[in-house]
Amino acid sequence: MTSRDVIADSGLPSRRSVVKAAAATAVVAAPLLAAATATASADERGPAFLHGVASGDPLPDGVLLWTRVTPSPEAVPGSGLGAATEVAWEVAEDKAFGRLIAKGSLTTGPDTDHTVKADVRGLRPAAVYYFRFRAGDAVSPVGRTRTAPAADTAAGVRFGVVSCANWEAGYFAAYRHLAARTDLDAVLHLGDYIYEYATGGYPATGVVREHEPKHEITTLADYRTRHGKYKTDPDLQAVHAAHPVVAIWDDHEFANDAWSGGAENHTPGTEGDWADRQRAGKRAYFEWMPVRPSTEGTVYRRLRFGKLADLHLLDLRSFRSQQVKIGSGHVDDPERTITGRAQLDWLKAGLAASDATWQLVGTSVMISPVAFGSVPAHLLGPLGKLLGLPEGGLAINVDQWDGYTDDRKELLKHLTDRGIRNTVFLTGDIHMAWANDVPVNAATYPLSRPAATEFVVTSVTSDNIDDILHVAPNTVSTVAEVAIQAANRHVKWLDMDSHGYGVLDVTAERSQMDYYVLSDRRKQDATTSWTRSYRTLSGTQKVERVGAPVR
Question: Do 299 and 239 share a domain, yes or no?
Fold first, then answer.
């Protein structure tokens, strides 16, 4: 049972801080890194907080707090060992906890892998708070969080945006650089927070550091252990300690190319029943992530950031039909779905009912069509269907919305028929950065008006095309980028080489994505630099290049 005292709040919300210069990143991050790792050396005879602290899913009056307590040395993640432990939590307006706002306690144990979640309410909107946990004599690192703006506020919001962090492919410097920023309202994680592979199974470029467990994860104990290993990373601990994280899953939280009834990387005969494996992956995810499930077993949900933006978050793995082969002729089958009927209806209803200036849609896989073929499928008749040609040509990635064109067509038609403007899809998965218009009909673009825009962020560490082919950057990608843009005129920019993150700045006038790249994902002290910025102006449904990042 959870108890809570809410202490009367006072004062006005603090003004948002100015973004730090890139050169100061390491200096600003250092205290967070020290705080995140200091407790790891706590007295091993009693409780300890070895996996950091986190917050997530901010509301105008509250936020979800998270930690894991290790009650005794044998109670490692996934072990099922350790006694039940009472954990107290505190929320304050200052780092010294002199102005305490809320407190409470709860009991955790092996049933939840000793993870702790406190859904704190009664807070002020758009306010910075500090939080910590206690168990016995052990005190956790201090976390910083921020509530969402009030419902009637039109102030701007800013998000860090990340996806695809493969432990074995490199270090999480992208998280460190985001942790150093003091101007973010939240960090949006668009999936592939963990990877399920055995050590050496991926990446193609060689193992930088080994997974734990070393085998492919398939059981509840496995998924818990892998999540626990990730949360020993100091850079990951730092970003969770610095900002609330809003997360959705993609496939690697379960297995590669997952769908409702299986996955490409799942063999029923040797790896058990898929439903059991998926259930284990979801349970561990909800235990180890600062995420509120909207309904049991799914992460699709909606968060509001004042009058400015509604953030619609999707689950594109739990309900989708199995992927088809490229050229199979079934990508346009109306019986196939990527969202499931209930989720698509929920999304359409939420978009239509929203009075926010911007509709931000967190989607783990790309919605923009990417195809080769100069002859539109509808002009080829039965032959086009037989070849699997969607509108605009032959799809090259049927794990994306390109493999489920009927759902995409229905959603984009809804946007245009209802006059829903300023829809921006925010996407991960593909390990490349993109800036796209989202056309209703790619074959007639740009004569036909786009229905939305899309910003895709690259991976934190996971392999891109040059990594996979073991070639120097720009060796293959430059040619591929030109070919893709020539065949897909709605693609305004793509970067197939880099690793990094994005920063999305939203105002009433525009939504702008600033793209940042890492110097070397295989180096723990990697630097970061701005590379490109694109924006969509209110009412245009088009992206355009901008000469500088938002400051």
Answer: yes
The two tokens of residue 518 are 């890492």
Count CA within 13 A, CB hemisphere, residue 68.
33
Q: Above 90 in pLDDT, residue 33?
A: no
- Number of folded domains that form the chain: 2
Name the pairing type of β-strands 309-313 and 358-363: parallel
Residue 119: which domain range? 44-150
Q: In this predicted model, what pLDDT tens digit does every residue of 402-453 receive, in sequence order?
A: 999 999 999 999 999 999 999 999 999 999 999 999 999 998 999 988 999 9
The CA distance from 101 to 7, in Å, is 5
Residue 478 pLDDT grade (very low, low, confident, very high; cuts 50, 70, 90):
confident
Q: 440 lies in a domain? A: yes
- Under a CB-based contact definition with an 8 Å cutoff, are residues 88 and 135 in contact? yes
Q: Which residues pair with 247 in a beta bridge?
A: 189
Residue whose tokens read 């206690």: 134
| Residues 181 and 329 reside in one and the same domain | yes
Strand partners, 454: 425, 436
pLDDT in tens, 275-299: 999 999 999 999 999 999 888 899 9
Q: Give a yes or no: residue 445 inside a domain.
A: yes
DSSP state of 323: P
Distance (Å, whole) CA 493 – CA 485? 8
Residue 29 has pLDDT above 50, yes or no: no
| Number of Cβ atoms within 10 Å of the Cβ of 207 | 14
Query: Is 38 found in the same domain as 89?
Result: no
Dihedral over Cα of 314, 318, 319, 321: its sign: positive
Helix, strand, coil shares of the chain, percent, nearest 5, are 25, 25, 50
CATH of residue 530's domain is 3.60.21.70
497 with 519, same domain: the answer is yes
